[in-house]
Amino acid sequence: MDRQKILEVERIRKDFPILGQTMNGRPLVYLDNAATTQKPVSVIRRMHDFYETEYATVHRAVYTLSQNATRECDLVREKCRKYLNAKNNSEIIFVRGATEAMNLVAFGYGRKFLKAGDEIIVSNLEHHANIVPWQQLCLEKNLTLRVIPINDQGELLMDEYKKLLNCKTKVVAVTHVSNALGTINPVREITRLAHDAGAVVLIDGAQAVPHLKVDLQEIDCDFYCFSGHKVYGPTGVGVLYGKLRHLEAMDPYQFGGEMIEMVTYEKTTFTRPPLKFEAGTPPIAPIVGLGPALDYVGRLGIDRIEAYEHELLIAATRRLSEVPGLKIIGQAREKGAIISFTIGDIHPHDIGTILDQEGIAIRTGHHCAQPVMRRFNIPATARASFSFYNTQDEIDRLVKGLEKVQEIFR
Q1: What CA–CA distance (Å, rounded) separates 194 from 164?
Q2: Which residues are catalytic?
């Protein structure tokens, strides 16, 4: 890798205090970024300062402290709009995370507009959060769930997708980037084909937003979502984007304070988006903390992040391929910096446990993607997922750790 980039990463790592600690007596190597990312000092300090000197409820008071807190949340909504290139702030809904966003669409849109006999298409790459809500809606309304198959490299079979589309297709819900395999899906083409068939499209962007440039005007999907904690921000906050015409036509997902226009014992009317879908007191501090997280990514530059992480992926793929008995699951041509693998008959949990003793944090299990595991006839994988603060040296540490795994089980 370019020496200048390594030096830059060494500087960046100083912004993430947790990366400087030891774990089990060894320097921490954090490779579970697909699950959640670490937080820069700017996010930590912003939330601390907000709680210490600025905290108040939002939208509901005339006093200055509350008005200032409301303004801060509004500013973050605008940052999210710009980050995604949405048309206006009313299309940005604050949710607890991508999981809540997908449930909101499934039941706020699907329950209202889908009828018995209609069909929903998902892919064989989905996180459970983009399967189960649609599955439950199908059971409730007598709908049919169709699945886009994948090949041995973990890529969608687009010809099969085209065959699934028909006049009964009403919703297509797919991931932008697979959390289990790293596959980057052609979401623009998926959206275009779905629209040609008269269907609306939801994209799960949880794994894409931290690592790729996302332009919603170019993708043209109807709904898009991500979680704050995967893009170097706090837990408890995420974003659902929806085209305004859909949001205005949908029913609220939850009911309570702030999302109402008028309440009597006989009737309730609801306010317009975005507040229509933000019942109750929102996660105020996490929303405020999401702002500097997006700022941080923006300062580094998403194009530079993508290029650097791709170099990490290439280097890690090469090194791991040299480990005897190691098999990488999913090697799509378009792929994010995620590597899922197995080593012979060694259980992934054993791999993860031994690596932990070496100070290396990876993910093991089915990654909330059991249908993906079944497609490859395995119960689980070990998964290393990379970020812009990871280094070549950490890849070397991972390989040495895997060599120790093999020594123990030899």
Answers
A1: 10
A2: 368
